[in-house]
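As the next step, I wrote out a protein sequence along with its fold in token form, included below for the reader:
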Amino acid sequence: MPAAAVLAAAGYWGTTHLNLNPAREVGAVLDEFNGVKVYYNGGVNHSDGRMLSRDGYNLGIKYQCVEFIKRYYFERFGHRMPDAYGNAKDYYDRDTAHGALNAKRGLRQYRNAQADKPRVEDLIVFKPTLLNPYGHVAIVADVGATDIEIVQQNPGPFGESRARLALDAADGRWTVAGGTLGWLRRASDGESNSAIGVQATP
């Protein structure tokens, strides 16, 4: 391998695995949404072991973005996903029809740029990028007329736990910017969780 490629690979590894922000410590609490804490992870690919519930349910790798959204749904709603594994991009299933059950997550899935507007506490999924092949997930914290706010874990050493994304309504379709694939949500008030295959905490 040419020296330049070796240096580039080493630089990428260091940038994505090391904590480059001396003002923050890995594992520190950065934010909180509805009582669920958001932790700092340093480099986006940093891994600090697996987080499990007391009874062994897999919440994900500390303190990745997936760990936050799974812990959020577990602590807030007692929701256990039928498939407890996967990278962020895997939380959106391209083969699931708009508004249908995403069977791996036990949640209804909505595609971006369709008739359903995102709601607060939806799980929102972002596509992979050149520098992030795993994608990204977050929780919708606020929905306005022209933008939404997300709360996220692991946006990078200098990233923020909150971000606002443009929301556009055209021809009856709601489009969220930022490489959004779609969003997932629990059963509606008039629909039982068991009707869509949700496994709740006993």
Notes: Residues 3-17 form the longest helix (15 residues). The mean pLDDT is 90.
